Structures
1.
Amino acid sequence: MSIIYTSNKSSKKILIGGSHEISTGVQGGIIGPMPRYSINRENISTGDGTYIGTKFTINITGTACINSNDNAQDITAKGQRQSRVMGEALTSLQVLREEFPTQGVGKLEIGAYGGLPNIITFTDARLLSVDLPEQSEENAGVQTLEYSFAFEAYQEKSNNTNTGSTGKPAPATYLLSSVDESWELSENDAFFYEADTPTTANDTLRKTYTLTHTVSATGRKRYKAAGTSLETDGEAFRQAVLWVKTRLVSDPRVEITEDLMGDTTFFSSKFLPIEMNKPDASDDLGFKLKSGTPAYKGYNHTRSVSSDQSVGSYSVTDTWVISQESFESTHSLEFNFEGGISGEGAVVTANATFQGLSTIDYSSGESSKTDKYAGALKAFGIIKPLIPDLAEQVYIDSQGEYALRKDFKLNESVAHNKVAGTVTYSVTFNDYDPPKITDAVSENVSVNYNNDKGEQKLIAALQVIGRANGPIIQDIGTTQISSRTITVDAVMKRGSAKPDGTAAIEPYRPLGNVYLTTSTESWNPNTRAYNKSETWEYNQDGE
């Protein structure tokens, strides 16, 4: 029996005991009696017991002897034998060190006597340590040398010819030292109105959620059976990548039917990410999102990827916003009631923000695109017609004294951000008296009264020569003529012709024996600004 170690870099063969000479084809090593060995097999499993691979620890212990053909080992010659024994020590210490940076990685073969079958073979054995213990009193450092090698391996590719054996072991699909997969579902502060019909009677809001899926693995280098090169995608990080790929999910509404290593035998319950539980589970631990009406789905699929080449690890984190599938946007609605502004009345201002949700996921091949703006625009089109009714309800809830003119928008603005995928909207309503001029957008009437109640006295001033106190003022017992000027300013709707402002002025005209002394109108077709002014003169007794 002998143990042969073949470098995966240079194919150099190293003998580790079991022979009295370095045979042809072997480039060096240690001669001596058959070494002793121990093999520890450790199954690598996840926390739930899922098997992902096997780690082997191989310890080889033996005794190195001086080559019998070495003439420089005369025990009577001072220091000769000790020098040769120390040479064996150097052989052990320096094994494979010249093969930097891949030293100590290769195929380890533990053979039977006479070269018979059932050779124990590891194709990725890594030399961990070399130990040369203290010399015993028997050899005193001049006869033999004890040694110990420690290896670790993950690929055992032996062939067992014994009756009843299974032959070669079934290799794992991916060579991994660790794997991890986790899901997290949490509530958001972002909401949307239920379905497509929020009303003053039903302001039901629906929650949104954030779903996070993290998959990570650490791989090992995967060598061919010959042990001289890597298999295709045999790099450690690529082994991790290939496994991570099998666990990625494009639609969190799809059930997971396999365990971490693709086995279905012991995974009958399945797992539904969007509900964080077994599909159709009756317990209260998860969320009832898929079965809702309408059902929820994933939006805003984002992905982050990390890789640590030094340890051969790879990790992917996917994130979704979970929202009802009839809506492709979250939105906020804010209403402000302000009463008694300049004594004119009350106003209600509505501010809305629509944040679109992207429906594009990474499996579509368009992961660099986004359609958030389309979702925001769709939601804006649905919610905008409903805002007047919602504003009216806010006016009522705020104890407004009159009636909100929800059919008249005092101010209105819309902002679009296609990059961020948002639409913002602002509109103001009031409870002011409606314009009397047909199709007027705004209307302002002012009335100027001159001696309206006859309080202005008509007097005579008599100048007296030498009177230091000025003229003599005498009330002649009558009053000045009264007048009233009525002015209306209006802005008309787009497309309107020149209006007639009489309807706005008429309620303020004086009654009785009155005389229209001035009447003017102005109209700007471009700005649609209109002005009408009347001046009326009259006496207090109507004569």
2.
Amino acid sequence: MREQAALLNAPEGYLDFHDEYAELIAELAALGLTPTQVLRRLNFLYPRINKKHLNYALNSGIWQFGPVTADAPSYTVLACGLWYVFAEAYDLPPEPEYAALILDCDIIHDLPPALEARHFNNEDIATVLAKIGATLKYLAAHPYSQLEEEAYAQTLEDIRQRGVKEIGTEGGSLYTLLASSMEGESAWPAPAQTVNDYLGDGDWSLGMLRTGIYPAEALENEWYIDAAAVPEDFAPKTLSLFLSYCARYDREPTALNYGYWSTIPTLIGEVPPLGAVRAKFGSWQTTLHRGRTQIARELRLWTKNEANAAAVEASAAESDEAELSAAEELELLDAELTNAELANAELTEAELAELDTPDGGSPAGAPAEPAEPAEPARLSARELTEQGIGVVQTAHTNLAAYHRTQWEQTVEVFGERLAQLAWNRRLSTYYFFDGACLEDADPTPVVTVFRSPTGFLCELEPTVEALPAFDPEFLQEHGWRHPVPVHVLWNLHALDPLEAAAAVIEAMRSGCGCERWDFYRTDDDNDPLAEEAEVALL
């Protein structure tokens, strides 16, 4: 009966459309798809389909789509409800064009099905999206706009009352739907308490800050939400860090995810809040587009500079090697032998007698002299070249200068390995604890570096108990952020591979007690210890 009535009132030409697509639509409805999902699917798969006839078919009532149930609003849907109420509180007209340009994909993906489950039709959904667009446009132009919890609750009540009054009246369908939608456990827009609990973790001001609305307590907390709060290096530093965080933890770089990330205890007040970013760039979509362009430009710049520097360094090294003659090598060897002879000449007769004792032992009855602590055995140049980060060079007479050179070389080689690291891959740095030499020690992962298209996310891996020393103050002073629930590891972000390498080695050496440069290892594909290191982790 319902189908017959729909066909009688159908627009011209619809019957042919119905004959061709009715069975397909019926099967899609039986699978539980919503009208919006069917619309998207058929538009993509049948690009020449008559859009007018398709919309009529889906709204005709011929098919029962579903089961369609209104689930509890997600984080995104809750935020959309808040933005919609803001538009109602400020009496903002819909902004469909602005919404089409700037609304995040997650809003378009999540909100229409949620509203559809609450019996909103396509026109109602379009109006709601346009009102949300109006809110975001207004906040970009007026970042210090507020919405107190009491004002939010009052606006909800006003919407409900208007919906009740307009039942059965022309033009009252949207508000009657809203009034009905605000009832029950899956209410949308959600009650003030739900918004407070889920968006702000019990703190209304925090929820406002995360969604780009100015909180009343912002000034006393020194939260600045205007464009001036966004520094010029926002893209290569803050945005790069956020994008690396998203890549590392498999999150989409949406406005709401940035809003939440920017309120992490170690970041709040240190990075611009969402409202300030929106005020600076006009929208989150513009922020991503411009920021990614700038990041890509800087990444290309350091890559180019690094390649040029490497070429110059290689050329200089080849020149130095060519200039090093056999005579110079003999001269160095002669100097070492001369020094050794002078040292032997200064020995006393007693010391000579000690040296003459069998098996190198002490003369009978001689008191035991405290021996100077011997430096742990080092790997050979070949072994360290194959296994370690650094490369052993000819020992210098100045031991301090020698070790300084080795630390510098460790950073340089580690930086080269990071520069060669592919995107979305990680490189773990190991240190051999609890042994005087490598043969007696076990490798422990200390820092893992994850490379995203926006730089290097460095994370301190082991527990504090596993480290020979741990200095959180040192780490914080050098830019490392302490663990929080959403990022449970000490972390630091760097754009340049050499910068990341220096930060990692510095943190391990001075912040974690990893004081032997020759005990460092990585798990890259060229490291023979990679397999052993992975087994040690299991």
3.
Amino acid sequence: MITGQTLRDAILSGANNIANQRTRVDELNVFPVPDGDTGTNMSMTIGAARAELEAMPDSCTVAEASKTAASAMLRGARGNSGVITSLLFRGFSKALKDKTEASSADLAAALQQGVEAAYKAVMKPTEGTILTVSRLAAEKAAECTELDVPAMWDATLQAGQAALDDTPNLLPVLKKAGVVDAGGQGIMLIFEGMKQVFDGGEIIAGAEVAAKPKVSSEAAGKGVFADDLMKVEDIKNGYCTQFLINKYEGASAAKMRAFAESNGDSVVCIEDDDVINLHVHTADPGKILSEAIKYGYLTNFKIENMHEQFLARQKQGKSLEKQASAEKAPSQASEFIYAAVDPSRDYGFVAVAAGEGLKAVFTDLAADAVVSGGQTMNPSTEDILAAIQSVPAKTVFVLPNNKNIIMAAEQAQKLADRQVVVLPTRTVPMGITALLNFDPSVNAETNTINMMAAADKVSTGLITYAARDSEYDGKRIRKGEIMALENGKIVSTSTDITKATYRLARNMCKKDSSFVTIISGCDVSDEDAEKVTEIVKAKCPNHVEVSHIRGGQPVYYYMISVE
């Protein structure tokens, strides 16, 4: 049997082990585009649990340790590999619910449930990846439940390593590159770090990693004060009331939400397996609490007099935004400030983009919040969630603009306290086109269909450099070469950025093409960008309109959008 302390220390050891070797995992990415961040994403995902685990007492149970880790990882998940890692631990946590200690059989069942959760989340699971390695490791664990935990975990690791070694036989691209799957290697490093503690050893030492700033909830429900012209008498429901309901069996969050809405406004009601998180502005907090206690025992109370808050702010002569920037620890707060849903506002938008130019483009197209991120730095679920909940709309559309960010956005969707629609935009040009096709006169479902239909018609070209020697689709690619990609596929290589760009743009233009947009990156001068734009204009048919945007994005010298 293992205790909660042992499981806590094991997860910390696993987090440190992959953090120490994340570069090694990054380098296993075989596609030559410079986005090799699997190790970084997985390390940052499990690392998100570090501070909370370290704060747990030695007396914690395995249920508490696993739940704390899973919850933090869910919010800290980055990239597809990070989301899958968080889901493995999420399932792991659910299997250990209510357990004080865990046997080999308990851990085997937990691994199996984690694998099931991860597979369910992936629409088209690919074998030869982290999923395969985790699944075969879990299957072996289930065969070894009569052993003690150290011996069972040894057998599990042996099976996982054999599965990892076999990944090149399942994915030809790995065999060509002579590497194993990066995600599979990452999860093995985590499991190996855990083994050291299960065997009775010390936590693997890790380099100091700065804790990621947590989303501040201090601003929750304070959007009512954003307007400096507001009068104190306008506040009818003067108590901002927030607490957790630790649910009794059969407790209905829907009924609690309905009661709160009938006795207040700005209601936020979030439910998971164990608790209901309720936020409401009300004139009578006691009435809300008296009703809530019927559904479970209450904790984490926070009741604030908004009349007093308002008058204090008015006296200071600061709006909400100004005050937020002047708080004691701005470095510990998200750049996004929580805003309660405004019943009068139907739609809002969150986009993900890297580069000030692209941020300005999305802002100009009515995006309410732009999350910084893209190819080399995938934002976490928590980052995207904070952006969503800063938009005071009943329905928030999210544009990930990168295939490796879609899963994190979908996890944020599940955690948000308002309706969220994730549009699976895989590139920035797709995101721009989707926004341009939003129609405020139709409902969310119709907009979703129409926006994605328009986005899917966009062709995206990318000009970047090869991060490593590789062979792809029969093409031998050398590190440092300029690569041209059309809709994610490498179509040519060159030694000249300008030539590669205009040739790609020309080849992407079809008879029915009308618009070509050249988006220049941070490593391209304005002069070079204008030169390329003029050449593209000359090379494309006369009926095609060619324009240039200074995107300022990293990694890609140019993005090309053809519609």
